[in-house]
Amino acid sequence: MIHLDAKELCLALLRADTEDEVISLLSEAGLWEGQGDWRFFGDREDNYSVIGVQQSRPEAALVEKVVNAVDARLMDACQASGVNPESPQAPQSIRGAVARFFEGREAIGEIGGKIRAWDNQKRREVARGITIAATGEKGNPCFTITDTGEGQSPDRMPDTLLSLDKKNKLRIPFVQGRFNMGGTGVFRFCGRHNLHFVVSRRNPDIVRAMGESDASTPFWGFTVVRRQNPKGSAKNSVYTYLAPLGTDTKPGRGGVLRFEAATLPLMPQRNSAYAKETKWGTAIKLYEYQATRFRSHILRKDGLLYRLDLLLPGIALPVRLHECRDYAGAEERSYETNMNGAIVRLQDGRHDILEQGFPDSVQFELADGERFRARIYAFKKGKAETYRKNEGVIFIINGQTHGYLPTSFFGRQKVKMGRLADSLLLLVDCTQMSGRAREDLFLNSRDRLTNGDLRASLERQIEEILSTHQGLRALRERRRREEIESQLADSKPLEDVLASIIKRSPSLSALFAVGKRLVNPNKPKEVAKAEKAFEGKRHPTFFRFRRLEYGKTLVRSCPINHRCRLLFETDVVNDYFDRDESPGRFSVAMRNGTSPEQPVVHILNLHDGRASLNIDLPGDVAVGDILHFRIVVEDEMLLEPFVNNATISVEAPARPSRGGHGSRKPGDSEEGKGAESQLGIELPPIYLVRRDRWPLFKFDQYSACAIRQDESEADPDRIAYDFHINVENAYLKAEMKEGREDARLCEAQFVYGVVLIGLAIIKDAVERERHRPTGNAGNGDNSDPEEPLERGVDRLTRALAPFILPIITSLGSLQDEDVGTLSRIGDDE
Question: Of 219, 526, 640, 803, which residue is 20 to 30 A from 483 by alpha carbon distance?
Answer without folding.
Answer: 803
